[in-house]
Design a protein that fits this description.
4-stranded antiparallel sheet; Umud Fragment, subunit A
Length: about 240
Protein backbone atom coordinates (compact mmCIF):
# COMPACT_ATOMS: atom_id res chain seq x y z
CA UNK A 1 0.00 0.00 0.00
CA UNK A 2 2.82 2.37 0.99
CA UNK A 3 4.68 1.65 -2.26
CA UNK A 4 1.60 2.24 -4.39
CA UNK A 5 0.96 5.62 -2.77
CA UNK A 6 4.59 6.53 -3.26
CA UNK A 7 4.53 5.58 -6.94
CA UNK A 8 1.39 7.66 -7.49
CA UNK A 9 3.03 10.66 -5.85
CA UNK A 10 6.18 10.20 -7.91
CA UNK A 11 4.21 9.93 -11.14
CA UNK A 12 2.20 13.04 -10.22
CA UNK A 13 5.39 14.94 -9.42
CA UNK A 14 7.05 13.88 -12.68
CA UNK A 15 3.96 14.85 -14.68
CA UNK A 16 3.92 18.26 -12.97
CA UNK A 17 7.59 18.78 -13.76
CA UNK A 18 7.09 17.83 -17.41
CA UNK A 19 4.09 20.16 -17.73
CA UNK A 20 5.96 23.06 -16.11
CA UNK A 21 9.02 22.54 -18.31
CA UNK A 22 6.85 22.20 -21.41
CA UNK A 23 5.07 25.46 -20.55
CA UNK A 24 8.43 27.14 -20.02
CA UNK A 25 9.77 25.72 -23.28
CA UNK A 26 6.85 26.84 -25.46
CA UNK A 27 5.04 29.70 -23.70
CA UNK A 28 6.85 31.96 -21.23
CA UNK A 29 10.38 31.96 -19.89
CA UNK A 30 12.20 34.31 -17.50
CA UNK A 31 15.65 35.67 -18.27
CA UNK A 32 18.05 37.75 -16.20
CA UNK A 33 19.88 40.61 -17.93
CA UNK A 34 23.42 40.94 -16.50
CA UNK A 35 24.73 43.73 -18.75
CA UNK A 36 23.82 47.30 -19.67
CA UNK A 37 23.60 46.88 -23.44
CA UNK A 38 19.85 47.66 -23.47
CA UNK A 39 19.95 50.63 -21.05
CA UNK A 40 17.69 52.53 -20.55
CA UNK A 41 14.96 50.14 -21.80
CA UNK A 42 16.30 47.23 -19.77
CA UNK A 43 18.59 47.89 -16.82
CA UNK A 44 21.39 45.85 -15.32
CA UNK A 45 19.86 43.29 -12.97
CA UNK A 46 16.40 43.25 -14.59
CA UNK A 47 14.60 39.92 -14.79
CA UNK A 48 12.42 39.92 -17.89
CA UNK A 49 9.58 37.64 -18.96
CA UNK A 50 9.68 36.47 -22.55
CA UNK A 51 6.72 35.36 -24.67
CA UNK A 52 8.06 32.33 -26.52
CA UNK A 53 5.06 31.85 -28.82
CA UNK A 54 5.00 35.44 -30.11
CA UNK A 55 6.46 34.25 -33.39
CA UNK A 56 4.86 30.82 -33.56
CA UNK A 57 4.09 27.80 -31.38
CA UNK A 58 7.09 25.49 -30.99
CA UNK A 59 7.21 21.79 -30.27
CA UNK A 60 8.24 21.54 -26.59
CA UNK A 61 12.00 21.04 -26.09
CA UNK A 62 12.64 21.02 -29.84
CA UNK A 63 15.12 23.90 -29.62
CA UNK A 64 17.23 22.45 -26.81
CA UNK A 65 19.76 20.70 -29.04
CA UNK A 66 18.85 21.82 -32.55
CA UNK A 67 16.74 24.33 -34.48
CA UNK A 68 13.17 24.68 -33.17
CA UNK A 69 10.29 22.84 -34.80
CA UNK A 70 7.29 25.13 -35.27
CA UNK A 71 3.81 23.64 -35.00
CA UNK A 72 2.40 26.84 -36.53
CA UNK A 73 3.74 29.10 -39.24
CA UNK A 74 6.69 31.26 -38.14
CA UNK A 75 5.60 34.87 -37.68
CA UNK A 76 8.41 37.34 -38.27
CA UNK A 77 9.32 39.82 -35.51
CA UNK A 78 8.42 43.40 -36.33
CA UNK A 79 10.88 46.25 -36.56
CA UNK A 80 11.77 47.59 -33.10
CA UNK A 81 10.59 44.46 -31.26
CA UNK A 82 12.89 43.55 -28.36
CA UNK A 83 13.79 39.87 -28.74
CA UNK A 84 15.66 37.23 -26.78
CA UNK A 85 17.79 34.93 -28.92
CA UNK A 86 20.68 32.50 -28.84
CA UNK A 87 23.94 34.32 -29.50
CA UNK A 88 24.98 33.20 -33.02
CA UNK A 89 28.62 32.65 -31.99
CA UNK A 90 27.71 30.60 -28.91
CA UNK A 91 24.18 29.20 -28.72
CA UNK A 92 24.59 28.47 -25.02
CA UNK A 93 24.39 32.21 -24.33
CA UNK A 94 21.14 34.22 -24.52
CA UNK A 95 21.18 37.80 -25.79
CA UNK A 96 18.49 40.48 -25.77
CA UNK A 97 18.50 43.24 -28.41
CA UNK A 98 16.14 45.35 -30.52
CA UNK A 99 15.27 44.41 -34.12
CA UNK A 100 16.34 47.18 -36.50
CA UNK A 101 16.63 45.45 -39.87
CA UNK A 102 14.20 42.84 -41.23
CA UNK A 103 14.97 40.28 -43.96
CA UNK A 104 15.56 42.13 -47.25
CA UNK A 105 16.03 45.56 -45.63
CA UNK A 106 18.80 47.87 -46.75
CA UNK A 107 20.61 49.24 -43.69
CA UNK A 108 23.35 51.87 -43.41
CA UNK A 109 25.00 53.75 -40.53
CA UNK A 110 26.48 57.22 -40.97
CA UNK A 111 28.05 58.92 -37.95
CA UNK A 112 25.89 56.91 -35.51
CA UNK A 113 22.70 57.67 -37.48
CA UNK A 114 20.78 54.60 -38.71
CA UNK A 115 19.14 54.50 -42.13
CA UNK A 116 16.70 51.75 -43.10
CA UNK A 117 15.65 51.49 -46.75
CA UNK A 118 16.98 54.99 -47.34
CA UNK A 119 15.09 56.62 -44.44
CA UNK A 120 16.78 57.88 -41.29
CA UNK A 121 15.51 56.69 -37.92
CA UNK A 122 14.66 60.12 -36.55
CA UNK A 123 15.84 60.80 -33.01
CA UNK A 124 14.79 63.59 -30.64
CA UNK A 125 16.97 64.64 -27.72
CA UNK A 126 15.47 63.92 -24.29
CA UNK A 127 16.40 64.06 -20.62
CA UNK A 128 18.04 61.08 -18.97
CA UNK A 129 15.46 58.50 -17.83
CA UNK A 130 18.07 56.80 -15.64
CA UNK A 131 18.37 56.92 -11.88
CA UNK A 132 21.62 58.02 -10.25
CA UNK A 133 22.38 54.42 -9.23
CA UNK A 134 22.33 53.21 -12.82
CA UNK A 135 24.14 56.25 -14.17
CA UNK A 136 26.97 55.44 -11.77
CA UNK A 137 27.67 52.36 -13.90
CA UNK A 138 28.79 54.73 -16.67
CA UNK A 139 30.72 57.15 -14.49
CA UNK A 140 33.00 59.42 -16.53
CA UNK A 141 31.03 58.98 -19.78
CA UNK A 142 29.06 61.80 -21.40
CA UNK A 143 25.71 60.17 -22.04
CA UNK A 144 23.14 61.56 -24.48
CA UNK A 145 19.60 60.20 -24.61
CA UNK A 146 17.26 60.28 -27.62
CA UNK A 147 13.65 59.21 -28.21
CA UNK A 148 12.66 57.18 -31.24
CA UNK A 149 8.97 56.87 -32.15
CA UNK A 150 7.12 54.64 -34.57
CA UNK A 151 3.49 53.61 -34.93
CA UNK A 152 3.76 50.81 -32.34
CA UNK A 153 6.92 51.66 -30.43
CA UNK A 154 8.39 54.54 -28.48
CA UNK A 155 11.74 53.97 -26.84
CA UNK A 156 14.92 55.74 -25.76
CA UNK A 157 18.48 55.09 -26.90
CA UNK A 158 21.78 56.29 -25.51
CA UNK A 159 24.74 57.62 -27.49
CA UNK A 160 28.06 59.04 -26.31
CA UNK A 161 30.16 61.72 -27.97
CA UNK A 162 33.12 59.41 -28.40
CA UNK A 163 33.91 57.72 -31.70
CA UNK A 164 33.65 53.98 -32.18
CA UNK A 165 34.77 51.83 -35.10
CA UNK A 166 31.14 51.03 -35.95
CA UNK A 167 29.76 54.60 -36.12
CA UNK A 168 29.67 54.30 -39.91
CA UNK A 169 28.87 51.09 -41.81
CA UNK A 170 28.38 50.96 -45.61
CA UNK A 171 25.00 49.88 -46.99
CA UNK A 172 24.18 46.21 -46.71
CA UNK A 173 21.15 43.98 -47.27
CA UNK A 174 19.82 41.86 -44.40
CA UNK A 175 19.73 38.25 -45.68
CA UNK A 176 16.46 36.35 -45.89
CA UNK A 177 15.68 34.52 -42.68
CA UNK A 178 17.94 36.82 -40.67
CA UNK A 179 17.65 39.98 -38.54
CA UNK A 180 19.90 42.95 -37.81
CA UNK A 181 19.72 43.85 -34.11
CA UNK A 182 21.17 46.62 -31.95
CA UNK A 183 21.26 47.46 -28.26
CA UNK A 184 19.55 50.64 -27.06
CA UNK A 185 22.76 51.53 -25.20
CA UNK A 186 24.35 51.97 -28.60
CA UNK A 187 27.99 52.65 -27.73
CA UNK A 188 28.08 49.92 -25.07
CA UNK A 189 26.44 47.10 -26.99
CA UNK A 190 28.01 44.11 -28.74
CA UNK A 191 25.38 43.52 -31.42
CA UNK A 192 24.91 42.84 -35.15
CA UNK A 193 27.36 45.61 -36.00
CA UNK A 194 30.11 43.43 -34.56
CA UNK A 195 29.13 39.78 -34.94
CA UNK A 196 26.53 39.70 -37.74
CA UNK A 197 22.90 38.75 -38.20
CA UNK A 198 20.52 36.71 -36.03
CA UNK A 199 19.07 33.64 -37.83
CA UNK A 200 15.35 33.21 -37.22
CA UNK A 201 16.10 29.75 -35.78
CA UNK A 202 17.97 31.42 -32.90
CA UNK A 203 15.04 33.56 -31.78
CA UNK A 204 13.55 32.44 -28.46
CA UNK A 205 10.79 35.01 -28.03
CA UNK A 206 9.69 38.60 -27.49
CA UNK A 207 10.53 40.45 -24.27
CA UNK A 208 7.36 41.51 -22.43
CA UNK A 209 8.05 43.19 -19.10
CA UNK A 210 10.33 43.36 -16.06
CA UNK A 211 9.06 41.07 -13.30
CA UNK A 212 11.95 41.58 -10.86
CA UNK A 213 15.04 43.80 -10.66
CA UNK A 214 18.01 43.74 -8.33
CA UNK A 215 21.79 43.91 -8.50
CA UNK A 216 24.07 41.45 -6.71
CA UNK A 217 26.57 42.18 -3.92
CA UNK A 218 29.35 41.63 -6.48
CA UNK A 219 28.20 44.39 -8.84
CA UNK A 220 29.55 47.93 -8.81
CA UNK A 221 26.29 49.15 -7.31
CA UNK A 222 26.19 46.41 -4.69
CA UNK A 223 23.10 44.55 -3.50
CA UNK A 224 20.03 46.65 -4.29
CA UNK A 225 16.36 45.94 -5.04
CA UNK A 226 14.77 48.24 -7.64
CA UNK A 227 11.04 48.22 -6.94
CA UNK A 228 10.40 51.00 -9.46
CA UNK A 229 11.48 48.70 -12.27
CA UNK A 230 9.02 45.89 -11.47
CA UNK A 231 6.11 45.73 -13.93
CA UNK A 232 7.81 47.97 -16.51
CA UNK A 233 6.62 47.05 -20.00
CA UNK A 234 9.31 46.57 -22.66
CA UNK A 235 8.34 48.54 -25.77
Amino acid sequence: MFKKINMKEIKSLLLTIVLVLSFRSTCFEPFRVPTGSMVPTISIGDFILTNKFSFGLKLPFSDMFSDPIYLTEFKSPERFDVIVFKYPLDKNINYVKRVIGLPGDEVELINKQVYVNGKILSVVSTNSPMTKEFLDNFRGEKLNFYNIKSVDHEYTIQLTDKETRKDTIPKFIVPQGHYFVMGDNRDFSADSRYWGFVPKENIKGKALFVWMSFTTPFSEEGLALHLNRIGKMIL
